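Researcher: Structure prediction, please.
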Amino acid sequence: MSMEFIEALSEIEREKGIAKDILIEAIEAALISSYKRNFNTAQNVRVDINRHSGVIKVYARKTVVDEVLDPRLEISVEAARAINPHYTLDDIAEIEVTPRDFGRIAAQTAKQVVTQRIREAERGLIYNAYIDKEEDIVNGIVQRQDVRNLFVDLGKVEAVLPLTELMPTDKFKHGDRVKSFITKVENTTKGPQIFLSRTHPGLLKRLFELEVPEIYDGVVEIRSVAREAGFRSKIAVHSRNAEVDPVGSCVGQKGMRVQTIVTELKGEKIDIVRWSENVEEYVANALSPSKVLEVIVYEQEKMARVIVPDYQLSLAIGIKGQNARLAAKLTGWKIDIKSETQAEQEFGRPKSAMSTMHQDSVSID
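Model: Predicted structure follows.
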């Protein structure tokens, strides 16, 4: 070792943020193993690297005893005091045993240790950077694909986007840019593992937060999201300021804000509805774009029976039940939809007693 080596460690400390003392301690520990392996010894040794000159010395550590039974681990009082007159029984005496060619072994070991520690430190920095981005959106470039995953280059790390987390409308090839939602960040023995999704409801939520300043500023809140990725989504919004229209804020002038999100999601339809503490009103809004005549709430079963005009029944239920299913996910209530005629026949509710409820929602195709 040399002064140049110590200076190199100082440079690593400045550039990589790894303390020089930590590196030296790691090298010393590795050199103990190297010494025992290369010189076939079971001696208890200590390796010392001078922090200023870089000079390396190996010391055998032996217990001071009256009678030596194992010369590799013990030293007599007389021999110990020949080294240092202050040694007494049961002290640990240190005798320098630095091999002549130990410098070459030390250089190789130090290089391996420093390389490993730099790699570990870089992995740690990447992990810390991305653990803070969990449940956030990232942009990346598609690198390759296997039978189960897309691998996306995020710059300093490659992330995994399972094919099951792609929308049905997604078609990516090598070199394509992809915007995804970070679902999980794990610290593994191979380094940070980052998992992405394009189907997670959080992607829709974060896109609105990025696109709508009122949401980013906290004036408008996203209270609930229900999503069937690639087909249709519903989002319930609420304004903390009575003068700010939450639905209008999300739609934007001429629908520009929400249209940007629809484009990013490859044409996924989005219903933006006003959240309400009133269950009847909230359920009615959630069934947008269908018109609702009446909502009857059954608190104990957490179920809402919804009555709609006859001509609106299929719209309220949606293709393969999608609209009703998303409304139930959004509100957290079971929803039973009946037409006016069905309600009259089953429950004896005359049509004349029903009137269209006020609904506040917008559907974007």
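Model: The chain has a mean pLDDT of 87.
Researcher: Thanks, that helps.
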